[in-house]
Amino acid sequence: MADAPALASQILSESLVVHAEITHSNPARSRAAEDRRQRVLGLIEKLKRLLQDPHQYLHEYVSTNWDHGAFYVVLEARVLETIAEEGSSAITTLSEKSGIPADKLLRILRLLSCQCIVEEVHDEVFGLTPVSQCLMDDEDFKAWVAFQWGDSMYDWHAQRPAKAERFRKAMRGVARSMDPADNLLVNWFRERYSQTPFTVVEIGGRYGFASFTLAREFPGITAKIRMSNADMQARGEGDVPEELRAVVRFEQRASDFDPQPVEDVGGTVAAYIVRNMLWNWSDDKVVELLRTFLPVMAKSAQTVVLVCDGVSPARDSADPYIEQAFRRRDITMMTMHNARQRSPAEWQLLFARASKDLQVTFLAAPTWLMPNPG
């Protein structure tokens, strides 16, 4: 990192020369100017690697496949041609002509906007950029760019069952390294219950349980994990560390959508935790689950529901590097799980559907790339 200031200064001085020699009005570039341009691009890449820690660098290095996949979808569905015909096109028009559902196509195009393939000129209205116009001007080049072959990840794993365990480990590993949920929960309880015993009820569980982390951090805690899946419960009970067995217990439920037990009333439960469950649930099921908490909350004013889940940021609400990461995650979830990250407005609407009396507060992680130390 010590080389970063000198490298940045070199980039600035080289860039000023390149800007002076290469202009839109004079596209013919001298060999010297081209050499400088390539040198600046190389220096920028070097600076980027210096600024990233190894975890960030590796994640960025292997994540570009989602950008490519999104690009191929747009090329196959001739979305760029539709935009070119209109000058700019609303997502509803592009969806109708391409046959791709509007909510999915919007996520695809917003990821491609981060790569300057298209431009979101107004909210949910897209236009071409010089990059995509290049494809429109050269049909042969576009045919080369659009060439692809291969199987989907599900077909690939079906043909190679021996790789299934690797896939399970990969899902667990990416959740542990990239999911800030446990840190957010620990900080929330530390601000309110640092010296006070309290009880939490965790609903379900996926890639581990927040209750384990909380039980390690807060010796006075009582943690209950409620779930309706007997197999998952058996695996979860087997994973409870010996030192936590006195404070963490599992409770079998007939259904996740049954009202919470009456013994929760009276201030005995500080919070219900719903961690990484709702991202692939339908809106109706999310609302149904939220309503199971309402009778207890109506009689226990201090009881809250803590939902830890992904949020897709509004357009231009984050730095470009962070926004691109979120757009990639949108495509990852859509492609691998047919699921989606909801926007803040969509989350607000779900809580409002559950009850108009619910007060909603968003607590964001500093960055979605912050590794989870657990």
From TrEMBL:
Stored InterPro entries: COMT_C (IPR001077), SAM-dependent_MTases_sf (IPR029063), WH-like_DNA-bd_sf (IPR036388), WH_DNA-bd_sf (IPR036390)
Domain O-methyltransferase C-terminal: 151-354
UniProt cross-references to SUPFAM superfamilies, sorted A to Z: S-adenosyl-L-methionine-dependent methyltransferases (SSF53335), Winged helix' DNA-binding domain (SSF46785)
Protein name: O-methyltransferase C-terminal domain-containing protein
Matches recorded under Pfam families: Methyltransf_2
Species of origin: Friedmanniomyces simplex
Example GO molecular function: O-methyltransferase activity
